[in-house]
Amino acid sequence: MGISPKIVPRLSQDRGHANHNWLKTFHTFSFASYQDPQHEQFGSLRVINEDRVLPGTGFGTHSHREFEIFSYVVSGQLEHKDSMGNIEVLKRGDLQLTSAGTGISHSEKTYGSKPVHFLQIWSLPSVQRLQPKYFTRHFTDDEKRDTFVRIVAPVDAEDVLKDSREGAGPAPVQSPLTLYATLLSDGKSLTQSIKGSKGYIHVVQTSGYNTKAATGAAIKVTGAPGVEMELREGDGAYLFFEQGGDLTVENIGDKTAEVLLFDIE
Q1: What is the mean pLDDT of residues 208-235?
Q2: Is the pLDDT of residue 1 over 50?
Q3: What residues are paired with 98 via a beta bridge?
Q4: Range of the domain at 35
Q5: What is the pLDDT of residues 32-59, one digit of tens each?
Q6: How many domains does the chain have?
Q7: Which residues form the Pirin N-terminal domain (predicted)?
C-alpha cells in the first residue's frame, strides 16, 4: 500500500492547561487564552479539552454555531441543557454529540456531589447551515474492554443512525472523522486499520490532574516496524499515513489504559 507512517508526539505537559479552581483543564489545540500556532487544528479536528469540573459548578449557558461538539464522560456526572429542549444527565460511558449547525445554546454542569471528568471534543462540519441536532450513545466498560469500539462516525457511514436521538452504534458526525475508544488491559495489544491519511491518539488522564511529565498507564504505538512511540496518561500523538495503514497499540504498563483514537480523512 506504500505506507510511510509518522508519529509525532503531543506530550501531556506541553498541552495548554489552566486551573480556575472550579475547572482544571488541558487543551490539545488552541483554545480560550491558550494559543499556539503549531497546534490549531488537525484536519477537521479542532478541540480536545480534558476537563475536570467541581460539584455545583460548570459552563453556564453559551452559544455555538457550525461545530460538531461531543463529550466523552470519564467519571462523575454531567448535566446537559440546551435550546432544543434537551435535558440529560450523562455518566461514565456516555457519548453526547451536539451538531450545532445554524446555532444552539447550551450549558454543561456537574451533577451530584462528585467532580466530573470529561473530554470535550469539537470538529468542523463538512456542510454548513445544517439544522441543529442532538445525540446520545452509551458504551459500557465491558464493550470497550480490549477492543476498539467505534463511538463516532460520519453520518453516511455504515450502521450509523442518522436521526435517532438515542440508539445503538456510533453517533453521527457531520465531519470526515471516526472516533474509536478502548479500555486496554495490561499486556494486551490491538491493531486498528486507519483509512484516512492522518489520525490522532490520546491516552485519557484517569489517574488525576497532573501538569508535569505524564505518569500512569503506558502504551506503545506502532505504525510500522521501527516507527513507534511510548505514551502515558495525558499524552497524545499525531499520526500520518500516505494512504492509510494499520496502527498497533500495546499496553506496556501495569494498569488499564483508556485510549481514544481518531481516524481523520
Answers
A1: 96
A2: no
A3: 69, 134
A4: 6-264
A5: 999 999 999 999 999 999 999 999 999 9
A6: 1
A7: 15-122
pLDDT digits (tens, 9 = 90+) for 112-141: 999 999 999 999 999 999 999 999 999 999
242 within domain boundaries: yes
Beta bridge partners of 136: 96, 166
CA distance 206 to 76: 12
In a domain, 21, yes or no: yes
In a domain, 55, yes or no: yes
Long-range contacts of 20-26 (CB under 8 A, 24+ apart): 21/54, 22/53, 22/54, 22/57, 23/51, 23/52, 23/53, 23/54, 23/57, 24/51, 24/52, 24/209, 25/49, 25/50, 25/51, 25/52, 26/50, 26/51, 26/205, 26/234
Q: What is the pLDDT of residues 164-198, one digit of tens each?
A: 898 889 999 999 999 999 999 999 999 999 999 99
1, part of any domain: no
